[in-house]
Sequence to fold (1125 residues):
Amino acid sequence: MLTFHSASARIVDSRRAIADCLEAACGDRSADIDLLIIHASMGHDFHVLAREAAALAPRARIVGASCCGVVGSEGVSESLKDIAIMAVQGPEVAVAHVDDIRGDNSASRARSLAGELKSSLPLVNMVFFMASGIDIDNDACIAAIEAELGPEVTIFGATSADNMRGVTSFQIFGTEVFSHSAWLVGFADPTLSVETQASHGFIAVGEPLVVTRSDGNRIGELNGRPAWAEYTRRLGLAEDAICAETIPIGALAEELSDSLADEYGNRHILRVITRRDDDGTIYYPTTVAEGSRLWLTLRDEQRIFDDLDRMMHSLSARIGSSEIAAVFHADCLARGRHFFHRILKEELVSRMQQPLAREGRIPPWLGMYGFGEFARLGGRNTFHNYTTAIYTLCRRQPAMA
Amino acid sequence: METGDPMADQELARLCKENAFLSQRLSRLSHLQAELAEARHQIDQITRRFRRMQDFMRHAVRTESRSELAALTCEAVVDILDCELGLLWCLRCAQGRNSLYISPGPPLLPATIDDLAAWAEAWTEGRDHPLPVSLDFHDHLIAPVLDDEGNPTGILIAANTTAKAGIHGPFDEAAMRSFAAFAGQVGAIMESRRRREMINAQIEAIRLSEERLSLALQGSNVGLWDWDFRSNRVFYSEQWKKQLGYSGDEISDALSEWSDRLHPDDRAAALSQGFDFFRSGTRTYSGVFRLRHRDGNWRWIAATGFVVRGADDKPRRAVGTHIDITAYKELEERLRSAKEQAERANRAKSGFLAKISHEIRTPLNGMIGSFQLLSGSRIDDEQRKMVELGETSGRWIMDIIGESLDLARIEAGKLVLASEPFDISVILAEVIEIKRAKAAAKGVRIRCVVPPGLPASVLGDSGRFRQIVTNLVGNAIKFTERGTITVGLRRARPTDDTAVPRIELIVADTGIGIPEELAEAVFQPFLQIQPNDGSFSEGIGLGLSITRELVSLMRGSLGVTRRRRGSRFVVTLPLQDAPAHSAAPPSVAPPRTRFEGSVLLVEDDPISRKVGTLMIQRRGLRVDTAADGGEGLRLLLAGHYDLAFVDCWMPVLDGLAMTRGFREQAHPARRGMPIIALSANTQPSDIAASRAAGMDHYLTKPLMDEALLDCLNRFAPASERPPP
Fold:
């Protein structure tokens, strides 16, 4: 049976940061950890984090990702020196890794990744997927993983990010640090089940941008014009604007079917542009067909709160009174300080955590502000952007005799 | 797009235009939302920075060293500004040296650190240079860390390197202001720490000083008092209270805690002394008094005090100590009592010795005197030998008594040396002459060596010098069976620190010698070395002891060395040359043995009276006697005598009073008649008393024929008839 322990902190010294978190999460039992998941902001030295973690938890498999901020049971923080960990004890866990995963090889790399995991953990029933958030076809990744593990295996996770500059992001696997890789953590604890859900609270506005030329996850033209030029024109920005300027205001919306819209609480699912080339090509987070219609959006603060409450209500109903072993959480970095000031942000986090608290105690919680989120929608593993996605690992109720 | 219907087309165009306008408005709204979010973010950032500065302040005051504070500061720079590096160049931070502190991260290269150090030195001297390129700073902020007086104590730097420029971005205006505010805080904290360190150091020094004082006072049993004149309250230390058997609150801060405990006999003096001290201009006070202990006994206290005066020179406070000297006082009392006992014992001993001396000398007078008379009468050789034996034995007893009295006087410190001119060569010759016969009887030759160039006369005690020579020569004769005894004088080799000329007396013999291990012991009283032939050594072993004491009193030295045969004694004496006229001219006339005239002998002891009469009559003089001083005075006043011999201690009227009476009452033409004291007492005080009473000379008993003859030669009237 897997047990989970989390901690988060804001500490300048990377070595002391990982040590303090391990001590806070596990006390003097860090040597007994089987899996350590690290989320850390870009100000940290990821090599130091990885090496120090390996030294302090020599038995643990170590995975990690860079982000724009962290969320723990202690609260939320968005600074360049944040760190949060989830330490897992138990045998029913395995990890796999693949490097150099990009938009044009996402399917094959993800397939290889899932195959590696399956060979070491055949009975995996849920996976935590982390990939670089810049230039990746996340739908292709989902399809590839499902092809190996089956669509019934829930994929939850996020894509790594920097501090919204779209320059680079990091992934930790063991004691090594990568910038274009993906890792997969498989859980095979039969006592655990996972409930996932995401929500965003944006509204699509205006005339849609029509994809007039695309190749996989790369959009060459929108409305017959170079994609980046048209995109920035519609946003009212100069063509030389950078992703850091477009991400906060440039969420693109894809229309959902009625049934999915009902479940989602919103007519549209959102996508973020995290990279563009000099020729105006923009990198979409999923495969996008020509003719697709993408709307610009406006965020609605009240709707964001309402949709969040709705999501948590739905999650809580599904979880019922089950014990929550752990909560993983992926939040779009654009929903952090670039949208909300501190008080509102803390309010949002509180509305996520309180419904899941048991006897006033928030369960072990590992959250990050990344570029994208994975959560089921319509019963299918789906990639999201600009959402708050919550993944609750619950202990199944024992069958009645 | 055209519909063919102008109205519809127009409407469509209008709608498209409106749509475009609305799209623009929506975009604008998005921008406004973003700007609002950014503005809120800026506010959040500023608030966050100041919250982090507060966190820093909270942790900074708990740091234990300047190094720890400096390291914390560098981390705080990174935390507050979300930048890559925080650096602090701290002036005189660690052991007085300038030090560089950097936030955690990859270390700088040594060359880079050197560049930065050089830049920092120049910067603090007012030379504004750009940062070294080796630092590869893409973006940085610099602020001085200042003390309260505006002097730089360090340089604070926030920086992002080129490698991380993409992550950290440039410092904006708000960051600059926050950084400047933070640098000010750092300066204040460091200044506060510096002052705190100074205060802590002073507190620690005071604590150590107080601890030392407290330990010293505890170890030395010294009580402290501190009297504030204005409040009239007194601080009494725990040791002060403990001295009197109290502690803590049992003694209040009232002056009466001291004054009420004073011994009634000491109270007036102690209070008077205290107030005099307070009123007078003296700064220090001391006194000794008794205070009542809790158990009712009295403790002797030695008190000292020191006045502290204000700016107006008025006494404000007095601080002092109490030392319990009861033990010393008791010891002092015991010592005083022991001294008195010792003095009484000494007096008793001296008195005993004097009395014994007197009691023995008196019958000895009769004994030796009888032998002397016998030896002058017609007796055969056998009888003469017996008489000589008897006389020798008597003299021996006299010597023993004399040495015992000398030792007693020396031990009591009452032996007074005379200082008069005498001829050391003459005394040497006289002693040798006296001893020669005895030596010759054993077959031992005495040789005298007196080189030329010795002073004709020296200042000193001739009698004690004679005693030294006599003891050493007599000792040499005692322990030499054959060979030669050499007695010599010479000048001692001068030394640098010798101011007074020194004379060496050397007595060397060919006798049994003194074992090396006994070289010092022979000078101990009563110790005697027995001759190898089994014969018994004469005397009681005081001769050398007394000789050494006499030499010591004369500030000389006495030593003995063993020779191949015999011993060699060397006495070194500082003897100042006497003035040339001091030496008495030798007598040229031969001494008389017969005299004419009448003598009165006043002596209460019948035997001494009889012997004395016969001895004097044998010299041709007519003798009348009296048995006490009263009868003697009557006879002297009524009769016509040429000379009187008077015993000093007699019943009715002692010799001294009798002499005084005669000198006062006799006819002036006869008042000068010589009166000779006769006494068994040999104390200098007795001799002095006799002189003071008017006696002309002092003869000690037993009366020796030669002493009598010498005295008669000096004081008997001159005779016109030649001796038979």
In short: Chain B touches chain A at residues 19, 22-24, 26-31, 33-34, 37-38, 40-41, 43-44, 47-48, 75-76, 78-79, 82, 84, 103-106, 166-169 (CB under 8 Å). The first helix of chain B runs from residue 6 to 60.
